[in-house]
């Protein structure tokens, strides 16, 4: 073929023009969101906190189901364990709630290990149901822990929330009351967690492990034959997602400051809504959950007064999307426009392929 | 020294014995051809060597390691590369990414360390024009090429090729033979299952005939093909 010395080098690129613009946009959006407490009221901060924490849960469920093929309906196990571990750190060990959030992530990670041992023996629908059963068992166990309020639950001690890290400083800087400062602090942490989650998952997908995830999803037998450790990928995805979900759970309950087993292990709040967000937005993409959480928030604001009709409508919308747009709203958008904000494709150019 | 040795290896599916007391050795650097009628157990033999299936009995040694119960992934690390008779591409990855995942995981290297080599293999297997296409959209010929390219990407010491020449035009067949020869010339041991006998015999130094899971002959290709029992089986098989 062509002489090596005259052949231009091959180049591998992942970025596109759209992704460069998106990256700049994301940085600007992040900075704007950081500034929000300086000009917005408490209502908006709480709404944004809700959106951001649901987004984190959705990104981790998407990592699990959309990229790892592990369709769990038991993520409430890790929200609940994360939240309870944080409460335990505060009430039993006298920790400040903010560092206790990390304890929530670690606890979720630790309970995920035996959970995985059990659930990985199950396939498809049995895996899904298995994860749900495990979450129910954890709810029942936590309801027995009297020191953390048993079945009726408990609240964070006033002293702990009042003297929480940085709240006094925020209250002084923004001239707000202590309770508003707490909302601002948890909002900032949620923003940080959401940004880190998206950046982390994007980094994972662009690493060679991201390729391995795709390979295992497409053809597990062939993946093994080219040296992909399918089992390790499953563990990696499951434990990472448990850790992140645990952090989010702990953070959500620092803001709520009150916990009960039924709420913290709620399959509706922490898995059904999250599934809805990912499916509506587009499973198997980072963009999907972002769009999905916005749609979910708007629907909730629109329909919240209708009680059970609200859930019913969500269900119908979810089913319609699954039937007619299985790749969600983002799937429709990217099919039409070809835009990818978080591209992972490795494009080969240069060499005898020529410049593109 | 032999790179691969099978001793009294057997495998059954239910009551059907598909690999029946098979023993043979492959010296390092040799190209061995395997022929036999459809259903003789050729692909099953590959699956046993690669670890996609586990033998019921017997021992498989690769580079003096007993690999009989070693998983497929570890055999890939050890240097066993394979193509699948029915192509098994990673549909949602591009052709280039199919090679990248094989090269980076199979050799335990970073992506950037194997990019250039993947591009070179694409050149060699004439897949460069479709490098950035999702593998799910390839033609059968391109899928077969991808099978070999992806196996090469893992940098195997032993390369197993399962019926990759069927349906090729003469020119394509010549190109394929060239590619396999150049891989062989680098010292890679090759085992090649093929119905296209003229292609096979123009590359391999030794021929193994399988029928009903049993080896009915192994040795010099010309000698093997002239045996009456082989002729009998092979009458009408050559495409
Ligand atoms: N996974 C399997 N389960 C049951 N039977 C199988 C399986 N794989 C192959 N067979 C059977 O084993 C026999 C040998 O198959 P195979 O090894 O593919 O033959 P060849 O590659 O020589 O055509 C065939 O009868 C086939 O139907
Ligand atoms: Mg076969």
UniProtKB/TrEMBL annotation, chain A:
Q: Which GO terms describe its molecular function?
A: branched-chain amino acid transmembrane transporter activity
Name the coiled-coil region(s).
Answer: none
Q: Identify the GO cellular component terms for this protein.
A: plasma membrane
Specify the protein's topology with respect to the membrane: Multi-pass membrane protein
The alphabetical list of record keywords is: Cell membrane, Membrane, Transmembrane, Transmembrane helix
| Localization per Swiss-Prot or TrEMBL | Cell membrane
Assign the protein's first listed, main location to one coarse class: membrane
At the top level of its lineage, which domain of life is listed? Answer: Bacteria
Bilayer-crossing regions: 20-41, 48-67, 73-93, 100-120, 184-205, 235-254, 274-303, 309-330
Q: Does the keyword Cell membrane apply?
A: yes
Supply the PANTHER family for this chain.
Answer: ABC TRANSPORTER ATP-BINDING PROTEIN, HIGH-AFFINITY BRANCHED-CHAIN AMINO ACID TRANSPORT SYSTEM PERMEASE
Report what the protein is called: Amino acid/amide ABC transporter membrane protein 2, HAAT family
What is the organism field in this record?
Marivita hallyeonensis
From TrEMBL, chain B:
Instruction: Please give the InterPro entries that the UniProt record associates with this protein.
Output: AAA+_ATPase, ABC_AA/LPS_Transport, ABC_transporter-like_ATP-bd, P-loop_NTPase
Keyword hit for Transport: yes
Q: Look up keyword Nucleotide-binding and say if it applies.
A: yes
Q: Which domain of life is it from?
A: Bacteria
Coiled-coil region(s): none
Q: Which GO terms describe its cellular component?
A: plasma membrane
Q: Which GO-annotated molecular functions does the record name? A: ATP binding; ATP hydrolysis activity; L-isoleucine transmembrane transporter activity; L-phenylalanine transmembrane transporter activity; L-valine transmembrane transporter activity
* Cited Gene3D superfamilies: P-loop containing nucleotide triphosphate hydrolases (3.40.50.300)
Q: Which UniProt keywords apply?
A: ATP-binding, Nucleotide-binding, Transport
UniProt protein name: Amino acid/amide ABC transporter ATP-binding protein 1, HAAT family
């Amino acid at each position: 073929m062509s002489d090596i010395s005259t052949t231009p080098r091959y180049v591998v690129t992942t970025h596109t023009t759209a992704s460069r613009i998106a990256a700049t946009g994301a940085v600007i959006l992040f900075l704007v969101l950081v500034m929000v407490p300086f000009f917005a009221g408490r209502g908006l901060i709480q709404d944004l906190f809700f959106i951001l924490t649901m987004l984190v849960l959705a990104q981790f469920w998407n990592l699990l189901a959309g990229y790892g093929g592990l369709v769990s309906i038991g993520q409430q196990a890790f929200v609940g364990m994360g939240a309870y571990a944080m409460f335990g750190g505060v009430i039993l060990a006298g920790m400040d709630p903010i560092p206790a959030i990390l304890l929530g992530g670690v606890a979720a990670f630790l309970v995920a290990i035996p959970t995985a041992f059990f659930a990985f023996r199950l396939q498809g629908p049995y895996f899904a149901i298995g994860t749900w059963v495990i979450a129910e068992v954890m709810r029942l166990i936590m309801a027995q822990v009297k020191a953390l309020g048993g079945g009726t639950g408990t609240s964070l001690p006033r002293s702990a929330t009042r003297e929480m890290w940085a709240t006094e400083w925020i209250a002084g800087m923004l001239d707000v009351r202590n309770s508003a400062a707490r909302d601002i602090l948890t909002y900032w942490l949620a923003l940080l967690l959401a940004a880190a989650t998206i950046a982390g998952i994007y980094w994972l997908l662009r690493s060679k492990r991201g390729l391995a995830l795709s390979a295992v999803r497409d053809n597990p037998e062939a993946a093994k034959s080219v040296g992909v450790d399918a089992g390790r990928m499953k563990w990696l995805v499951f434990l990472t997602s448990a850790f992140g979900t645990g952090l989010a759970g702990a953070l959500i309950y620092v803001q709520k400051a009150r916990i009960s087993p039924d709420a913290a292990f709620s399959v509706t709040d922490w898995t059904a809504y999250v599934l809805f967000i990912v499916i509506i937005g587009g499973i198997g993409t980072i963009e999907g959950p972002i769009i999905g959480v916005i749609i979910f928030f708007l629907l909730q604001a629109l329909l919240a007064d209708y009680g059970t009709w609200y859930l019913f409508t969500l269900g119908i919308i979810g089913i319609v999307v699954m039937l007619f747009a299985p790749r969600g709203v983002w799937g429709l958008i990217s099919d039409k426009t070809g835009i990818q904000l978080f591209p992972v494709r490795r494009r080969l150019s240069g060499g005898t392929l020529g410049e593109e | 020294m032999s790179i691969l040795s099978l001793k009294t290896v057997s495998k059954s599916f239910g009551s059907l014995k598909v690999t029946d007391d098979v023993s043979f050795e492959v010296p390092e650097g040799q190209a061995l051809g395997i022929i036999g009628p459809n259903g003789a157990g050729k692909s099953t033999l590959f699956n046993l060597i690669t670890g996609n299936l586990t033998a019921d009995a017997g021992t498989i040694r690769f580079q003096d390691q007993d690999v009989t119960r070693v998983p497929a992934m570890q055999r890939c690390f050890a240097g066993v590369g394979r193509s699948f008779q029915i192509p098994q591409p990673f549909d949602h990855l591009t052709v280039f990414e199919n090679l990248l995942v094989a090269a980076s995981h199979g050799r335990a290297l970073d992506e950037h360390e194997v990019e250039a080599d993947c591009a070179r293999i694409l050149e060699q297997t004439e897949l460069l024009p479709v490098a950035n296409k999702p593998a799910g959209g390839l033609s059968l010929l391109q899928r077969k090429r991808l099978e070999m390219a992806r196996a090469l990407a893992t940098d195997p010491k032993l390369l197993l090729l399962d019926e990759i020449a069927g349906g090729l035009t003469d020119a394509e067949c010549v190109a394929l033979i060239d590619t396999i020869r150049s891989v062989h010339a680098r010292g890679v041991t090759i085992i090649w299952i093929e119905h296209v006998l003229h292609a096979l015999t123009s590359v391999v130094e030794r021929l193994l005939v399988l029928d009903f899971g049993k080896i009915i002959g192994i040795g010099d290709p010309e000698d093997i093909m002239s045996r009456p029992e082989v002729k009998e089986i092979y009458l009408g098989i050559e495409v």
